[in-house]
Amino acid sequence: MNTIISASVLNSDMSALGQELRRAENAGADWIHLDVMDGVFVDCITFGDYMIRALRPHSAIVFDTHLMVRDPSKLIVSFAKSGSDIITIHEESKCDHLSILKEIRSFGIKAGIAINPETPAERVFPYLEEVDMVLVMTVNPGYGGQGFIKETLPKITLIRNEAERRGLSELNIQVDGGINANTANAVKEAGANVLVAGTYLFKSSDMAEAVRELKVINN
Ligand code: DX5
Ligand code: ZN
User: Which of 5, 9, 10, 21 has most ligand 1 atoms within 8 Å of CB, for mutation?
Assistant: First the structure.
């Protein structure tokens, strides 16, 4: 599988998000990763569907929306209509996951399920047929710029193997947190094909080179 790079704008210049997402696109990022935090599921509040709707005209790039919210049940309609191409909900959120994943797909967009570092891989198994992507958090959610938790690597492999066993060869496995040129190799070897990178891309002096590095390592 080709490696997909999803640029997280969390640690970009948030006062100029439209420009920042074009900068990532011009550097070769495939998707833009939009971290929505509600101040309950995690301690911070970032932005919501209004912001995503405002960003949509700035680029046609894939909008990869990561919902770190306590209960996404009432949010799917507005986030789908805001222009998200993928919406990922957390297994740890309090909701009826199966019906929400179906609702996301009913808008013709892709659905994802995420697990935090301490959540066992098996917890996403009931949803594998209902999702286009599994997000394995490689840091605890809430902040950019944290160190990669290497104990998450076996979970990526467990999920990839289970997907293969079920004939789900198209399943995207995304990793999020602490991804850089030193950690990209290990997550790809473990079975991930979508790499979220925030700090590494937005704080690099040459973003295009940084994107290339993440893509080519181990390819
Ligand atoms: C963390 C977010 C990540 C974060 C990754 O809660 O979900 O998307 O922006 O940032 P880096 O790449 O800096 O670890
Ligand atoms: Zn994220």
Answer: 10
pTM (predicted TM-score): 0.97
- Protein residue whose Cα sits closest to atom 10 of ligand 1: 144
d(CA 167, CA 10): 35
H-type alpha helices, the chain: 17-26, 49-55, 76-81, 97-106, 153-165, 184-190, 199-202, 207-216
* pLDDT 10s digits, 152-210: 999 999 999 999 999 999 999 999 999 999 999 999 999 999 999 999 999 999 999 99
Domains along the chain with CATH numbers: 4-216 (3.20.20.70)
Alpha-carbon gap, residue 88 to 75, rounded angstroms: 12
Q: How far is residue 169's CA from residue 160's CA, in Å, rounded to a whole number? A: 9
Backbone dihedral angles phi then psi of residue 132, each to the nearest 5 degrees = -100, -15
Nearest atom in ligand 1 to the alpha carbon of residue 42 is 6
Closest CA to 202 of 3, 2, 32: 32
